[in-house]
Each structure stands twice: as C-alpha cells, then as structure tokens.
Amino acid sequence: MLRRCLNLMLLAACAWAAGMAIADTDRPTKFTNRDTIGNTRHNLTQRQASGGPAGATMDSFRNDYEEVCVYCHTPHGANRTVTAPLWNRTMKTNTYQTYDLLGTSTLTQPVTQPGVSSLTCLSCHDGTTAVDSIINMPGAGRYNAAQETQETTDFLNSWNNRRGPDANVHGRLANTECVSCHSPAGGFSGLGATDFTVFAIGTDLRNDHPVGIRFPAAGPGTDFKDPQRRDGRMAWFDGNGNARPDSNEIRLYNAGGGDGYEVECASCHDPHGVPSAGPGSQFNATFLRVSNTGSAVCQSCHSK
After folding, report:
1. Most buried among 136, 167, 240, 262, using CB within 10 Å?
2. Strand (E) or helix (H) holding 3
3. CB 209, CB 112: distance < 8 Å
C-alpha cells in the first residue's frame, strides 16, 4: 500500500509539472481516434506517433509491451480456455449479476451468463483482471500457460519497461485501482485524470443493456426488427446489402448450445474502432459500430 501511495504521489507530481488540471475531471482523449486502433484508448502502450499521451507516467501501473495488439492477441500460444481469436488475455471464471435479476415484466427472453463476445470485453471492463495480464509477452521464452485463468504477479513483474519505471502495480479498471484516480472523486487532486467511471462496468450487469440475452423474433405485436442476414454463428443488420457482417453493422452471436442468436457486448461495439462518418473520419469515441446520433444504435434493433 505504501508503495502504491508513493507511486500515486509521483504520478501526481509529474501531472502537475505538465500543467494538467488541478481537479480530476473528464478530459478529452489525446489520441486522434483515426485510422487505426493504435490511435485510440485501446492502445494500452499509451504511445502515439505524434501528440499522444504521456504514457511513461503510467509505466509503474501497467507493463508497456510496446506493441498494441499484444494486450489482446498473440499469433502463437493463445488462451485455450476461450474460443476467441488468438486470445492473449487472462480469462478468469466470474459469475455476473445479469439483467434478468431485476425481475422486470417487460423482459420476455431468456438470459444466460455473458458469451465469449462479451467476456473478451469484460476481461478488462469488469475490473477483476489487470489490463496488462497476458499469457504470451513479446519475445522468446515469455509464455506462461498458468496465466490463462489467473494472474501470476511474478510473471507480470518479469517484464522490463524500457521507457520508464517497471510496473509494480498491475492496475485493474476498478474503483480501488484505475478508477481511484480516473474519476471526478479521484484520490489525488492535481492528476487531471480522465474519468473512466463509466467504463468500469464491474460484475454487476443489472444496470447495463442485457448481454447473453436471446434476440426476440420480429412480428406483429413486437418492437424488434429482423436482421437481414444470418449464418450459423451470426445474424446481422446488413445496411449496405453486401451479405457480409461489416464492422459498422450491428450483429447478434450464436455460440451454440441451443441459445440462439444473442446480444453481446460486441453486438454494438467494435474494439478496433469504426469511422463514425465513413472511411477517413474520426472513430466513435465509445467504439460503437453505429453512431448513436438520433438513437441510431437503438433503432437498428428496436422499432420505436
């Protein structure tokens, strides 16, 4: 705890020296949100070719692997416990409080625990796993199979940050860790840290849009639209009619097991970024597949 406090004090001093705001507040991202995931907040190296954040101030809180993709993906030695593409993150076995526990009378479809297209997002956003907890670090001899389902601090500590201090705190997106500074009520004034509260979802999903919920069939007396395209694993609202699930189209996932097509986090969000107004434009800051201007995301599925 003392070490963490000292790190926070050092970070606060660096931020103050850089002329940042006195009080923690929601500050615009310094990333451009254009062209590539490397220019978004999902670039956990916090590096950018020009004008990016001062990532070195966070080096004691997460490993800077110097590669953007490696925080989620690896070409070799991927996580064998989850059917996600070349997944490189630790996947803990968590039980989530789901939307059906509210007992709302308008819920007509069965709800299961989040599927893989939500669990990959929740592996950071539920706040139980360090943002830098990966299985296969860059370089030879840096693979640890035990990381698949649990964090091994000694393994994470074996990485050396070339740019700044080595991480001795491997922060989670949780109230007691990242959000303890990245919130309006952050622990140190002078940080000027962006408010990440809304992104720290936790394991209680009752106040979020249902995930792991079967998508209702469209028809008379329902308020749902029917996706134009379906295959065995996915259904999608094919806005451009090209018969492919493009990144800027809302989709539903069929993970098998008889649950049918379900809404998951990745139904509405693409973690790699989608140009909000077409190719060359700025990415939607919340990684939405469709800009929600005029409730466009909602009205992709709902008839209102």
Report:
1. 262
2. helix 2-17
3. no
